[in-house]
Amino acid sequence: MTPLSNKGLKEFRANYINMMIDGMDTDTLIQIVFDNLDEYYERLDEDDIKAEILDNYGEDTLESLYPVDAQRSLYDEVIEYYANPLSVAS
């Protein structure tokens, strides 16, 4: 076989990748996508991730994605207010 040109190699890779994808079940595809995205976002800091979420989905989505233990409940805010009402900005 003769060596492939850059264009030929790109097409060869695409054919191979498509063959592998065709043989995968949905759970495997989801896991591969998750792993790739997780690897990408591990390289970003918190501010970069927040900025991307805000740009693409908005403030409500950003807030909904926070871990439950990082979210302040109304109860927490009321307790904080009554513990020190002058320190809470209105």
List keywords for this structure.
0% strand, single chain, 90 residues, mainly alpha, elongated, 2 domains, 5 helices
SSE diagram, text form:
Layout: H1 6-22, H2 26-42, H3 46-57, H4 59-65, H5 74-83
Helix pairs in contact: 3-4
Uncertain spans, ≥5 residues at pLDDT below 50? none
- Overall, the morphology is elongated
Q: State the helical fraction.
A: over 70%
Provide mean pLDDT, rounded: 89
Number of helices: 5
String of helices and strands: HHHHH
State the assembly state of the protein chains: single chain
* Strand segment tally: 0
**What's the main sheet like?**
none
Rg on CA atoms, Å: 24 Å
The span between the termini is 75 Å
What structural class should be given to the helix and strand makeup?
mainly alpha
The share of residues in extended strands comes to under 5%
Number of domains: 2
Task: Give a written overview of the molecule.
Helix content is 70%, strand content 0%. The protein is an all-alpha fold. The protein folds into two domains: 1-43; 45-90, no CATH class. It is elongated and about 80 Å long. The chain starts with 5 loop residues before the first helix and ends in a 7-residue tail after the last helix. The model has no long low-confidence stretch (mean pLDDT 89).
Give a brief description.
This protein is mainly alpha-helical and 90 residues long. Helices cover 70% and strands 0% of the residues.
